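Have a close read of the entry that follows and walk me through the local backbone shapes. See right below:
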Amino acid sequence: MANQTETIIRSLLDWIDAGSLNPGDEIDEAALADRFGVSRTPVREALMQIEATGLVKRLPRKGAVVFKPTLAEFLAILEVHAKLEGLAAGLAARRLSPALAARLDAATAACETHFATLGETEPDAYYQLNLRFHGTVAEAAGNPFLLEMIKTNARKLMAYYRARYHYAGSIGDSARDHRHIADLIHARDSAGAEAAMQRHVQFDQVTAMDLLAALG
């Protein structure tokens, strides 16, 4: 049953990452059990484990719902997330290995190429490149516990970050920010990289309200 539970957990997290599951979406136990060809026991165990991270809220005798923050919750999570991402960038500037440096260059260049060739179009495709950049920075920090905290926290905001790239000018701004942050990391400017990443990740309250409204 452990492997069944792990498979369901991995699938649910992948669906959240890909935007197949969004804030407020219901997750039906019976439908999941049918999809994976299992009893409801591993499904319930999977939902319990994900609930412990705050990504879903279980519903009595039905299943669960994907976490949908209030404005206050959104801003509180965002405050923590900006600090975590900033910490990762600062550590990456101190610990960047040759292998991660090459990956960081590739991830940064991919964002720039998207903007240079497609402009502000195909925002969902750009968002995947954005995830690659941030994931590379987090890995370069060399702290697996920090990496896991960033992943868990990011999933609570992922749908809203994805929606952000549908706004005019956001892709170009993001690609330029990524280049600036990457340059600071390569220059071993830990304080500069940390501050730049925090500014990049943070939203103001008006933008947060717009994104919450956009996703209903």
